[in-house]
């Protein structure tokens, strides 16, 4: 029976990393698919108009030159369900110039005593920890013994001092045990960025796009699901009639709601409705007449991490964000949610410099609109699943 209409709801995205840039690496839908929403496909064809004189007022027909394709969609932020295992959308993050760091087992394997020289905001890690600066930045850390609780490492130095995003209830000393749980961390990178093949199924139609690279933003919303918003650029390869795949498996972890979690500005709890971060990658398709569309696969040529947060306005003695804005003093920003191992998410901006500060109100309550830039080379922001 001929199908007269294609239904937008009946769609699926499968993707796979390419071994050779721009050459199809066919994904297996059953295992290489990801749940998405808000799918949008934009065909960016070069339209060529000529002005040849032909003895008529009518011009020649327009020509269609090379074409790239934009693919955008959202993904709900949650873990894979298993600590130390990347979420199903991890490969998408890698194609947005984020390095994937997998810590498959806890460090140390059993909780061990911290050093004696810590404080409420700094833990000195023991002999089982490596003394490599930045190695554990962005990762979670759990405490038991004299202090019970969890935090995330804002900064880590070669002397094994782990600065925390939280201020703990007491000093972290040798009467406190620590452990970094298994986790998967995504951090900005400037090395080689993998490209992806997309197979997009829509109710019996399949489009294949190759050489996909992109950019991503993270949207935290209080009392709601939080989302990753992806924008990719790729090259069209083919369209064909293919039945919708069956028996597709997705991460079985529960969708997270941002409540009962954390939103910290300079280690202080901040009430807000939103916390956004945009990696703002610059993308270009280099001209190349040897390629079928006259361009090479998209390349990431730059990045400027920016974002916003809208905390309620406080007295100056509580938080002086306006003073920090005027002085250019950077502050750490941090959000996390989830309580079950394998389905906890944390986002940390170790050094956020405010670039705008505006007062407004939200339902009669004064709020600050803080626009910020994340400082640092390949360490401006961290997204962790644990």
What does this structure look like?
This protein is mainly β. The protein has helices at 29-32, 90-94, 321-327, and strands spanning 11-17, 33-34, 37-48, 63-76, 98-103, 107-113, 122-124, 140-145, 149-156, 161-164, 176-180, 183-188, 196-202, 205-221, 227-241, 262-265, 268-269, 272-278, 281-284, 299-303, 306-311, 331-337, 345-362, 365-374, 382-385. The chain has a 17-stranded antiparallel sheet that branches. The model has no long low-confidence stretch (mean pLDDT 96).
Short description:
This protein has about 375 residues and is mainly β. The protein has three helices and 25 strands.
Determine Rg (CA atoms, Å): 24 Å
Report the strand count. 25
The percent of residues in helical segments reads under 10%
Shape: globular
Indicate the topology:
Layout: E1 11-17, H1 29-32, E2 33-34, E3 37-48, E4 63-76, H2 90-94, E5 98-103, E6 107-113, E7 122-124, E8 140-145, E9 149-156, E10 161-164, E11 176-180, E12 183-188, E13 196-202, E14 205-221, E15 227-241, E16 262-265, E17 268-269, E18 272-278, E19 281-284, E20 299-303, E21 306-311, H3 321-327, E22 331-337, E23 345-362, E24 365-374, E25 382-385
Antiparallel strand pairs: 1-2, 1-13, 3-4, 4-15, 5-12, 6-11, 7-10, 8-9, 8-11, 9-10, 12-25, 13-14, 14-15, 14-18, 16-17, 16-22, 18-21, 19-20, 21-24, 22-23, 23-24, 23-25
């Amino acid at each position: 029976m001929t199908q007269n209409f294609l239904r937008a709801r009946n769609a699926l995205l499968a993707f796979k990393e390419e071994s050779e840039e721009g050459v199809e690496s066919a994904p297996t839908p059953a295992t290489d698919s990801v749940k998405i929403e808000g799918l949008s496909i934009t065909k960016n064809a070069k339209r060529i108009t000529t002005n040849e004189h032909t003895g008529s007022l009518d011009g020649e027909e327009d020509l269609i030159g090379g074409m790239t394709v934009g693919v955008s969609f959202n993904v709900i932020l949650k873990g894979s369900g298993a600590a130390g295992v990347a979420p199903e959308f991890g490969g998408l993050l890698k194609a947005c110039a984020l390095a994937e760091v997998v810590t498959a087992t806890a460090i140390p394997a059993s909780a061990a005593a911290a050093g004696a020289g810590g404080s409420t905001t700094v833990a000195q890690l023991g002999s089982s920890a490596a003394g490599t600066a930045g190695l554990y930045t962005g990762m979670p850390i759990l405490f038991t013994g004299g202090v019970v609780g969890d935090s995330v490492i804002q900064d880590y130095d070669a002397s094994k001092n782990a600065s925390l995003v939280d201020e703990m209830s007491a000093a972290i000393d040798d009467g406190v045990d620590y452990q970094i749980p298994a986790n998967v961390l995504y951090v900005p990178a400037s090395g080689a960025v993998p490209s992806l093949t997309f197979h997009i199924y829509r109710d019996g139609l399949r489009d294949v796009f190759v050489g996909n690279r992109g950019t991503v933003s993270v949207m935290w919303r209080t009392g709601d699901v939080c989302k990753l918003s992806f924008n990719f650029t790729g090259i069209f390869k083919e369209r064909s009639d293919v039945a919708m795949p069956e028996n597709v498996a997705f991460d079985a972890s529960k969708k997270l709601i941002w409540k009962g979690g954390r939103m910290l500005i300079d280690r202080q709890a901040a009430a807000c409705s939103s916390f956004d971060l945009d990696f703002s990658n610059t993308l270009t398709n280099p001209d190349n007449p040897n390629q079928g569309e006259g361009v090479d696969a998209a390349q990431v040529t730059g990045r400027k991490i920016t974002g916003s947060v809208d905390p309620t306005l406080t007295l100056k003695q509580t938080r002086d964000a306006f003073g920090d804005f005027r002085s250019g003093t950077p502050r750490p920003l941090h959000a996390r949610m989830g309580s079950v191992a394998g389905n906890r998410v944390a986002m940390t901006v170790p050094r956020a410099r405010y670039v705008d500060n505006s007062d407004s109100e939200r339902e009669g309550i004064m709020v600050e609109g803080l626009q910020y830039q994340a400082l640092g080379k390949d360490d401006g922001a961290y997204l962790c699943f644990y």
